[in-house]
Amino acid sequence: xxxxxxxxxxxxxxxxxxxxxxxxxxxxxxxxxxxxxxxxxxxxxxxxxxxxxxxxxxxxxxxxxxxxxxxxxxxxxxxxxxxxxxxxxxxxxxxxxxxxxxxxxxxxxxxxxxxxxxxxxxxxxxxxxxxxxxxxxxxxxxxxxxxxxxxxxxxxxxxxxxxxxxxxxxxxxxxxxxxxxxxxxxxxxxxxxxxxxxxxxxxxxxxxxxxxxxxxxxxxxxxxxxxxxxxxxxxxxxxxxxxxxxxxxxxxxxxxxxxxxxxxxxxxxxxxxxxxxxxxxxxxxxxxxxxxxxxxxxxxxxxxxxxxxxxxxxxxxxxxxxxxxxxxxxxxxxxxxxxxxxxxxxxxxxxxxxxxxxxxxxxxxxxxxxxxxxxxxxxxxxxxxxxxxxxxxx
Length: 394
What we know:
The protein contains twelve helices and 17 strands. The chain has helices at 2-13, 19-31, 67-74, 118-135, 141-145, 153-161, 209-228, 233-248, 323-326, 340-347, 356-368, 389-393; strands at 35-41, 47-50, 61-62, 78-82, 87-96, 99-109, 166-169, 172-179, 187-193, 197-205, 254-262, 267-273, 277-282, 285-288, 308-311, 317-321, 377-384. The chain has a six-stranded antiparallel beta sheet. The longest helix has 20 residues, at 209-228.
């Protein structure tokens, strides 16, 4: 642990763009590392992009079918032997509070590696992940490394809104994914967890390109402003509705599914104001959770929103999807939400919630056929564990 403390101190005092250099030097000094490589997951979650000075110049490593990808997906160390070089390559997940960021690969001499060093290396990766989050405020190095292609301006604006791609607490774990990742229209998601509640919003601004990005930015920030002001769920929807109407006078609107989970009891309050929908997997049975549909945000002045209620139980899996998911049509003309979505959700039972959105979107791409999706496809998966005495004390 003395080694870990020394590395952690070095990371905290390093310039934001030198974090990998600091880790490389420390791993070389304390563990005899011969080579260190940091890769971050791209926004489509299909590849791991190397952190380097010039973006898009080094071949990515696929998330599926590579040792690095196995470490990223399983969230555990993967060790690969290279007898010819008398070396061992260790691939370690870099994750912060459940948000999977990437993989650190360390090549060590064969005679210098033991399983006992893995916990120390994982601690160093955790510290590195935290420092990358902080460093993102001051450098574009890690932001660029997450990109497999250039963003449109609209996509840049939308991604800056997102809280992350996954989040884990003792009471729940969730993951989310947007597709197409590099040319987003109006779909977005947001979450915030406090000591006793989780608030989750799935939004879909009408239109495309910059118009959709500006509209969604307004709505999401209005919802955040209302939440941070202490308004209840209906009040959050009302304030955001007023903000959108004041700007667009009914010419544009935002669909939103807004939920607030009580971490102690599993009681859920929901406001359904538009197109995002919810399905529940319980005891291997998938069923949609219906709500009374209310008007999207900004459609009319002074809309009154009424929350509805339901309860989640430990073991429940919730799947949230935008209309780009459930309204996608197969070559035979059947909507994905009619039957195929339930099959896909059942088939992913053994996957953690962080991997479910990607699995559903890959299945959706095959279902849709050769032509690209003509709308954003957004999937959020939430596994509910409930609060135990241990969870309540954290």
